[in-house]
């Protein structure tokens, strides 16, 4: 199952790479303040939020562990496609995703160690393990997609569309199978843990929205990036630090819960960005 999930993510990232503009990847890097925003929102504020929620919540232990794991895995391999559907520019979306991947290599192990120390547990996630997971699920397929675009041109774009279609179907099937298999556990877990799930998802969105700056598109991008996490990294940390704990049901419950809580925000931001674009059309036409 892990291999199938990894293959699905790789196909979707390859499709994004085919459409990426190499010059646009440096958008965030050219703006140091944005690097600070990313670190504060994704690698500091959300883990602190998770720690506070776990301290005060009466949710099951598995859900508390899953909250902490999700807070640590601050990487979003499928972020560009999500942001494009909301109206965020492709260059900024690609750059934001790439920067978070690079920052995650040193910062995820540090975050894991810090949270482990807060709860009196030694949590060891090596930079090499994180780098390997990120390379296999994002960096390599993203680079392959960009190379295909440079070599094949329009044919690569068609390949990207096929890759996206196949991966979307695969992901839907995987989610459906997992939900059916774990259905008897997921619903009770969500019912027992809904306050902490809502607080974590809504708090993450609020953190990204507030720290995203004045630009509506960039603010939306950071909010979505902040609430989106890397399932592969979650499983890596879980199997390394909690080998005897059944984490799949609570992780699935948390992912589903965060997706549901995010629906009103994404709908609101999609309408807002669409109206912003429509408002700018007359001015652009006049020029």
List keywords for this structure.
287 residues; mainly alpha; disordered C terminus
Description:
- The chain has 287 residues and is mainly alpha-helical.
- It is globular and about 50 Å long.
- The relative contact order is 0.18.
State the gist of this model:
By secondary structure, the protein is mainly α. Helix content is 83%, strand content 0%.
Topology, pairings included?
Layout: H1 2-19, H2 32-56, H3 61-72, H4 79-86, H5 90-118, H6 127-152, H7 154-181, H8 183-211, H9 216-227, H10 231-241, H11 248-286
Helix pairs in contact: 1-6, 1-7, 2-3, 2-5, 2-8, 2-9, 3-10, 3-11, 4-5, 5-6, 5-9, 6-7, 8-9, 8-11, 9-11
Estimated radius of gyration: 19 Å
Q: Work out the number of β strands.
A: 0
**How much helicity do the residues have?**
over 70%
Largest β sheet strand count, sense and barrel closure: none
**What is the string of helix and strand elements?**
HHHHHHHHHHH
Helix segment tally: 11
- Beta fraction: under 5%
Content-based structural category: mainly alpha
Poorly predicted segments: 281-287
Look at the structure and give the mean pLDDT. 81
Ends apart, CA distance between termini = 54 Å
Global morphology = globular
